[in-house]
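As a warm-up, study this chain.
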Amino acid sequence: MNTLEKLFLAVSAVLSLTSEAAVVQPEVVTLDSYLKDFHPSIYANLAGRNVDFSKLESAYPSTIHNETATPAIVLTRELLISPRKECYKTNGYFLENNFVATCVSQDGTLGNGSGLLGITHNPAGTGTLNTPDYLRPGSPFEYFSVSFNNGSPVYTNNNSNGPLISGADNIPTTITPLYRSAGQEGAVLATSTITQGSNKLKITQKYSLDPNASEIVMRTEIENTGKNTVKNIQFARGLDPDQDYDGYGEFRTANHIGHTFNYGFGIPNVVVDPDHIAWAGGKNTKLFTALYSVDPVTHKTCISDTWTTVPNNILNAICGVAQVPSPGVIYSDATINIAFKVGALNPGQSKVFSYRYLFGKTAKPRIALPAIVLEPVLLSK
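Now compare it with the structure written out below.
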């Protein structure tokens, strides 16, 4: 383990000990205040035209979606208001800064089913309107899963089942917005319970989006709230990235595990082990996303063309395709995944681990990713 990875490890351990923010009722956000906070140039444009924001917010969707068209200057509901409102209508919570936006659904997954917002990212940091959606095209697929004891059944919530706990979702979950402090753009707490006979687990997941960060920090705590020791606990998270679909009609991405970054100027290469990172780059948009962790809890990543959600499969590279570390590339419509081997928990015991969804853009995705990895991890806390 090199010096930088040791530093990553120390930072992750500190983040895991951070206490939860105070829970408050969700803030009521009006359209004009929303635009002031997140899209100031658009707000100034509309205010200069004496637009009635209240009427605009309640207006019916326009049939014109072309950004260059005159009605688009007045911001149709389809372009801006609907993603936020649809998220709230399905009892989700909207997370956004100027780089990243997503809806945390009622089932604790990211995205809003086939609704108007999955996960969007604008690398310029000028707002997330009309940027390619990583999740929504095709069949939205963002999940978390848990298994224990003999590994069966696997408990899974997946955004492919829609924003509510429905279909094959089998992890009862509630979501709560967390207090927005000066140092944090927003956070949502997803609390889940799994009961199997006399075995009972509580899973608490905190999703945080800090100002000016191109990452969503995921902190997970698994607690044994039952009366028996629960063995072989495993947890997984994964995403089917489709950032090249909008504008190009391409579902495939260039998928990698592991990474080596050469800074030049005599600085030693930074090597990120394949266990720590799985990422997908769009050949056309040059946008990428990654699942990344250097948490001390044992974990593995994999690229899966079978779209597995089974933690044990990910931990053992049973993912339907040979796992070739970077610079090897798997160019396909596959998922990126990370799984954690939590192990046994006695009654009352818990274990905490963390990982991140990273987002960025580069003309050479093989070498630019750790620049995004390093800055938030080393400078944001």
